[in-house]
Fold this sequence. Notes:
Blueprint: H1 6-10, E1 19-20, E2 23-24, E3 26-27, H2 38-50, H3 61-81, E4 92-95, H4 98-113, E5 131-135, H5 140-153, E6 156-160, H6 173-176, E7 181-187, H7 200-208, E8 212-216, H8 228-231, E9 235-239, E10 250-254, H9 256-261, E11 272-274, E12 282-283, H10 297-313, H11 315-329, E13 338-340, E14 352-357, H12 362-370, E15 374-375, E16 377-379, H13 384-389, E17 395-399, H14 406-417, H15 419-423
Parallel strand pairs: 3-15, 5-6, 5-7, 7-8, 8-9
Antiparallel strand pairs: 1-2, 4-10, 9-10, 11-12, 13-14, 14-17, 16-17
The protein binds 4'-deoxy-4'-aminopyridoxal-5'-phosphate.
EC number: 2.8.1.7
Domain Aminotransferase class V: 26-412
Cofactor: pyridoxal 5'-phosphate
Amino acid sequence: xxxxxxxxxxxxxxxxxxxxxxxxxxxxxxxxxxxxxxxxxxxxxxxxxxxxxxxxxxxxxxxxxxxxxxxxxxxxxxxxxxxxxxxxxxxxxxxxxxxxxxxxxxxxxxxxxxxxxxxxxxxxxxxxxxxxxxxxxxxxxxxxxxxxxxxxxxxxxxxxxxxxxxxxxxxxxxxxxxxxxxxxxxxxxxxxxxxxxxxxxxxxxxxxxxxxxxxxxxxxxxxxxxxxxxxxxxxxxxxxxxxxxxxxxxxxxxxxxxxxxxxxxxxxxxxxxxxxxxxxxxxxxxxxxxxxxxxxxxxxxxxxxxxxxxxxxxxxxxxxxxxxxxxxxxxxxxxxxxxxxxxxxxxxxxxxxxxxxxxxxxxxxxxxxxxxxxxxxxxxxxxxxxxxxxxxxxxxxxxxxxxxxxxxxxxxxxxxxxxxxxxxx
Length: 425
Ligand code: PMP
């Protein structure tokens, strides 16, 4: 790991410099949303102060500058994830977030199933007897859009099972994915377990049978170096707000050839070459085809700043820094009556550590921890099947960002060790 001063980087986050209930804030809820460095906050307001205008329209100078800033941001985001961004080769679509990107795909596949998009789109079409494959570790924003797609098309939803500690059973790829499988949608990192999925065997098998592979990259892009070309994924969706960028925007990666074949999912302004009253419109090439309506330009520009800022720190450095904190968080498992829902070894996992405190409801745990100034998430984290896998309905979840320190994790472990004595269980 290069010598990066993460304590100094933490100073770039104004929100972290405050007390909660009389204690210094320890923010361990970055899997829900990350905090924003000053440069990202400034980028958004600077955009509004200096170049705010609609993009891709209007002949005036501000519109041109705004368009340039928007496209530069797309290129910055593309560089973070190993995607193309040259004009005519763009592989990054702006969305309203991971959920929107995943729904865009499911809707577009549904449209292809109705014959929209012509012959080229037939590779995405589903019919009764076809299969869609997900896993039990999916966030509801993967599970539900593709489950609904199955209902709409008559396709069958199948899923990967999990190991006892919550890893997706990649070793069963050859059985779960069959010649009938058309779509495979899998999380790169479990938002509850923190486990990094061994996606290579799944991608390989999906392609062997001609299926499209979709990656939920929400919990990997902020923490790991990813290269979608090297990983050979067909599509990937994630949100800017978890990678130190603003809320309200996200990105969908698609291999250029697939984006060109994919029919649109949302319809409106700025996405057609020609529109008629009496015949279907002719849609623009990607990415514009998927970006109907006025775009959240300020937020996209700020997300581009976040992407560059992360690259400047170095994804390998971020990964190593958070790994050390994860090691400390995993000591939660040594506390009497505390069970970790996910891999207990600090291998192929990130610093997202969900845990159950025997005999104490997660909301009580969360409130007790909050009273000490520590922010964690409680509930089912929009991932009910994985909780059912562990025999629970809800849990507590601590999750790191690059601004956390080993001391933050130690503070949590100490706080959690007091929970059962406090509640007298
Ligand atoms: N997938 C995973 C793994 C997530 O953690 C989240 C965010 N909780 C999402 C998808 C959905 O992201 P968003 O709510 O930003 O659209």
